[in-house]
Structure formats: structure tokens, C-alpha cells
């Protein structure tokens, strides 16, 4: 194995071992931290310097998007006005590998004056930060992956995963659902799947033909409809079946006398339906499960109101 590949593999192994050891050592302090954050009336304010600050930003973002209001304050900026962002209703999460980071330590008396509870994440259990904090989450870092044991590597991974662990425990405690996640991510694909309804994107007046419609009429109907399908309806406009362009191709392969074929011979009877108020994700799941590319949308009275295609879910 090339040296660089071996070095890379060792990084994964070293950090993996550290994480497994950490998982076995989580204590009641972790549970108390979850309870404290869950009981916070305001927001969880996250602070850290350098690489710990970068990890802190990610932790704050993860918490905020998973139901625990949170934001990041840079410790240096805190002394130039950003302390005003922290209120007595908040809790504070401080990150420092050594527990002695000067900018973080200097925050402590101001936070104590505000009366806000402080949670520390640090690798040094006997440190200024650990001593002053209300709760300390100790990350056990046997050694950084850096050959010189200097660059923050294992330590930042441990902090990051500790933050993820807090966020996931809080999600479970708050019974946070996919719909809640989607409301915080309306611009993402998950938000679209869960918040957008079938009725928002369905085609309300799909092409249709009668049971006795000949092949040529069906082709013309589908060509003008430009949806690659046609519903088959009775005289009362009740949907009896559906014909797709795939049905037409199969008919052309299997029949020579195409002009003699009628809609009732080509259609799939009783097509699959989906409520028009169902989320797009439900439509996508149903299409995948039944291996179809279109569904008939229905209203609460089970009357067809349109069609939705797999293509509509991709735009």
C-alpha cells in the first residue's frame, strides 16, 4: 500500500478508535446537558476560537436545523458588542481543547454575571473552563492524527461528534419529525418533498379519450396533451383507465393491425391514485414501489382532479 494511502487509512482508524472509546465513556453529564438545553427558554449560544470555533459554527447550525434554536458568537467579537446577543434566557456552549483558551476564559465572568448556564466541551477535565462550567462534556483525545501531535484533527472530530450526539438526543427528546425538518429547509429537496403537495404541481386537465377511441385518436390526444399519457373516461368523465406512451410502444411491437385497437384494449384499468393533498414524497414513494411513472390525483370525494408524473417530481 502506498505510504500516503496508509497514512490516510491510519487517520480513519485512529479517529474511529477514539470515537468508539468516547461512546463507551458517555456519562450522566451528557444526559444533564441534553436536559439543560431542552429546558432553555431562549437559545443555545455556541462559542469557540480557531478550529474549535469552526466546529462550534457547525454544531450551532445542526442544532438550529433540528429543533434546538442556536447561534454562534465569536469570542473575540463578543467583547466588541456581541455579548449583547446573549440574554438571561439563553444557555451557552463553550468549546476549547485545552480549557484555557484566553478569549473563551475571558467570557466566563461576563456569562456568570448574566446568570446563564454554561456547558463546556474540552479535552482537559482539570482546566479553568471545566472548573467554571455548570456541566463539562469531556472528550478523550489520546493523540492528534498530526505526525507532530499539533494540528487539531482527532480533537475537532471528537467535538464535532459530541455536538452531533447532543443534537440527535435533543431531536429524539423533542419528537422532531421529518415535517419539522422540512419547515426549516424549505429550499432543499426534502423540503420540497414534504411541504409541496401533489395538487400544487399536478396537471389539472390531462388529456382523455373514450373507451372506444381508436388508436389514431389516442395518439393524437396524447400528442396534443404533451404529457405522454391519456386518461380513459366514460360518458360521465369518470376515470376508468390510463394509457401511457409506453403502452403505445408495446402495442406497436405486438400488433400489426393498430388501426383496429381501441382504448379499452390498451389501457391499464383502475390506475393508481394519490390524494391531491399528499406530499410529493408520498407520490415519489408510490411510483417507485409500483414501478410506474404517473399517478391519478384524486380529491377527498375520490374524484380524479389531475395527474402527476415522475418527471414532475424532478423539476
Automatic annotation (TrEMBL):
Any single GO BP term: carbohydrate derivative metabolic process
GO molecular function, one term: metal ion binding
Keywords: CBS domain, Isomerase, Metal-binding, Repeat, Zinc
Sequence ranges assigned to domain CBS in this UniProt record: 202-258, 267-315
Site feature: Catalytically relevant: 51, 103, 144, 185
Domain SIS: 33-176
Keyword Zinc: yes
Flavoprotein is among the record's keywords: no
Listed transmembrane segments: none
Binding-site residues for Zn(2+), renumbered to this chain: 74
InterPro entries: CBS_dom, CBS_dom_sf, GutQ/KpsF_isomerases, KdsD/KpsF-type, SIS_dom, SIS_dom_sf, SIS_Kpsf
Domain of life: Bacteria
UniProt xrefs under NCBIfam families: kpsF
Family, as annotated: Belongs to the SIS family. GutQ/KpsF subfamily.
Record-given protein name: KpsF/GutQ family sugar-phosphate isomerase
The organism of origin for this protein: Aquitalea palustris
Amino acid at each position: 500500500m502506498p505510504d500516503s494511502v496508509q497514512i490516510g487509512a491510519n487517520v480513519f482508524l485512529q479517529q474511529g478508535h477514539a470515537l468508539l472509546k468516547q461512546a463507551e465513556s458517555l456519562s450522566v453529564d451528557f444526559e444533564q446537558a441534553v436536559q439543560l438545553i431542552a429546558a432553555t427558554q431562549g437559545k443555545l449560544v455556541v462559542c469557540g476560537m480557531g478550529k474549535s470555533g469552526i466546529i462550534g459554527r457547525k454544531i450551532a447550525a445542526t442544532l438550529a436545523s433540528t429543533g434546538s434554536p442556536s447561534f454562534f458568537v465569536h469570542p473575540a467579537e463578543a467583547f466588541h458588542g456581541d455579548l449583547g446577543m446573549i440574554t438571561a434566557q439563553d444557555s451557552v456552549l463553550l468549546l476549547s481543547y485545552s480549557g484555557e483558551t484566553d478569549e473563551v476564559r475571558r467570557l466566563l465572568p461576563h456569562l456568570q454575571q448574566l446568570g446563564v448556564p454554561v456547558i463546556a466541551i474540552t479535552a482537559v477535565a482539570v482546566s479553568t473552563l471545566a472548573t467554571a462550567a455548570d456541566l463539562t462534556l469531556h472528550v478523550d483525545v489520546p493523540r492528534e492524527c498530526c505526525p507532530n501531535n499539533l494540528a487539531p484533527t482527532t480533537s475537532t472530530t471528537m467535538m464535532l461528534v459530541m455536538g452531533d450526539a447532543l443534537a440527535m438526543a435533543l431531536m429524539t427528546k423533542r419528537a422532531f419529525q421529518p415535517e419539522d425538518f422540512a419547515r426549516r429547509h424549505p429550499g432543499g429537496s426534502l423540503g420540497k418533498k414534504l411541504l409541496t403537495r401533489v395538487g400544487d404541481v399536478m396537471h389539472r386537465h390531462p388529456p382523455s379519450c373514450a373507451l372506444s377511441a381508436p388508436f389514431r385518436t389516442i395518439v393524437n390526444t396524447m400528442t396534443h396533451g404533451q404529457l405522454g399519457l391519456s386518461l380513459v373516461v366514460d360518458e360521465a368523465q369518470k376515470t376508468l383507465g390510463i394509457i401511457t406512451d409506453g403502452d403505445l410502444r408495446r402495442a406497436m411491437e405486438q400488433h400489426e393491425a393498430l388501426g383496429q385497437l381501441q382504448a379499452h384494449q390498451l389501457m391499464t384499468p383502475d390506475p393508481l391514485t394519490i390524494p391531491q393533498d399528499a406530499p410529493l414524497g408520498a407520490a415519489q414513494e408510490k411510483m417507485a414501489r409500483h414501478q410506474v411513472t404517473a399517478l391519478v390525483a384524486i380529491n377527498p370525494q375520490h374524484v380524479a382532479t389531475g395527474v402527476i408524473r415522475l418527471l414532475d417530481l424532478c423539476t
